[in-house]
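Q: What does the assembly look like in three dimensions?
Context provided by user:
Components: two
Sequences:
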Amino acid sequence: MPVYAGTRDYIAAPELMQTVNVAVQLGRPLLIKGEPGTGKTMLAQSIAEGLGLRLIAWSVKSTTKAQDGLYVYDTVQRLYDGQFGEGDVGDIKRYIKLGKLGEAFTSAERVVLLIDEIDKADLEFPNDLLWELDRMEFHIPETRETVVAVHRPIVLITSNAEKELPDAFLRRCVFHFIDFPDEAMMERIVRVHVPDLERRLLDLAVEAFYWVRSIPGLQKKPSTSELIDWVQALVGGGVDPQEVRRRLPFMGVLLKKDHDVELATAALGRRR
Amino acid sequence: MFTRFFFLLRAYGVPVTVTEWLALMRALAFGLALNDLQRFYSLARSVLVKSEAYYDQYDQAFLAAFEGIETPAVIAAEVWEWLQDPLGFPGLSDEERRRLVEELGEVDLDELRRLFEERLAEQTEAHHGGSRWIGVGGTSAFGHDGVHPGGIRVGGQGRSRTAVKVAAERRYRGYRTDVEVGTRQFELALRRLRQLSSRNEGLADELDLDETIEQTAENAGRLSLAWRKSRRNAVKVLLLMDVGGSMDPYARLCSSLFTATNRSSHFKDLRFYYFHNCVYDWLYADPGLARRTAVATNHVLHELPSDYKLIMVGDAAMATGELLSRYGIIWWGEANEEPGIEWLRRLRRHFDHSVWLNTIPADEWDRAYGAATIRIVREVFPMFELTVDGLTAAVRKLMVRY
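A: Here is the predicted structure of the complete assembly.
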């Protein structure tokens, strides 16, 4: 059994790595929750890369239905073809298009299947996938075929906790909550993205970042991706490290709401 | 101790089921965490706990079960024992026993035992430097009997904190839903306010196959596509919120509820009005209760049909006169011909479903300032505290069908 141990550009906490391996071994979907910017989606890429498997990503939207992931039967096309005498309408298979889950099941090699932001979809969505994910197969009544997974895919599901997931679904999953990284971890993460960075600037930027996050009443706390953008802006703007602490240059990169910028400016004033 | 852990988790409020418990056994049989308590801690958590809201309770249960233990060796022994007679698990309800039997039907128990035995044997070999057990820093206390509860200390792979210490830190206290109220959790609870529409509203965006065939046939075989409307959430909500005065300390709590509800835009309709202490002749569209935003309460009652779900938010704490007397309104310049309680009853009567969310915790309703009026308002509206659990219960109440 291959063991996931993180990849060069993705830093996973030991607990997370262990949980990934638990899910792989148990053959259960791994449900990942965490604040935006804690690298939930990147984890899937990293698992695929680390285990040398192909990644199939299914981004869930509010209109996504479970059926879309299995297959879509293009009735309208078939009706039109029948009307105009085009193609072989007797061959239903031509009108069955496999979805991402179908693709993952039929793949000749084992794949990593990412079901991204499952909580965006309808409340019933996870329940509708329960059986398919459990048995790793589904039936297409139109062609009387059953699609059975050639290799059980490694299923990774991410959620922003917008909606609570059904209990029956949760019972089948292995769960991990990604903590917001601490300062030391965050410095490592930033280093991965911005490799040649002055030590002092990094320290000060990360310190300022956590200070900003600690301001009470923020509507949207800055996340990892904002910190990375900010550090890049600081480097690009040739900002004197001294200034970082004193006046938070390019504050707009960290904070996206007027209300938050005002709060931060006020807090900055008090700190001086 | 090990089976005690299961019941401790329950006692602390973590909803663990036998399905998950069995998954943990399998994970242990695969040798995923038998001699590193830190690993066992996170393995068990990832399999047994499905929401960070329960991480804190998990930590407490873990602490209670394994305090003083430095290696899961003892646990392994107990797992082994459990595997000999899984159904002998004490304290299960009949329903759970039935479920366990069902689950066990899908698991090859002999295979599980064999795997486990292998692990135990391997662990003895690890003594001699086996590498399969990641994280083994020392020796192990396993023989064939699988029992050696003495438990020799196994190193924690350079990580200085032991699992019990991690659990004792209780880092996840902030994620508990029964304690913390965050906007997101509110939203989450409010999203249960959902009732699918019938097929006669909204956009026609689904192909109606039967109708298509019908129409095509009538069309002498020329294709005629028929579309129908898909089902959407049909819930309509009226939110009335108390602002100012005794509500000031709760202003933030309420504004977060406001944004939460506002953002979950999937309601068919959502109306907000504000009032101060109690509802009388006028409601206000503005939280500052500016006179120009005033709307007659009667107008609202007249305009909104009874299928709007009414949510009142307030502490219901006021002077009894404000609630029960004519002219009891606390504002000068306005006079109420009818006592506030009449208005509340009228609202309650008009809408099929209504609840009152109280910003004061439920266990203080009897003794908080305003206990007298809280009691009276509770006779009119079903009252829930404004926590995630309270809101969830309130939403359930709102969705009940008569």
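Follow-up: The CA atoms of residues 67 and 128 of chain A lie 8 Å apart.
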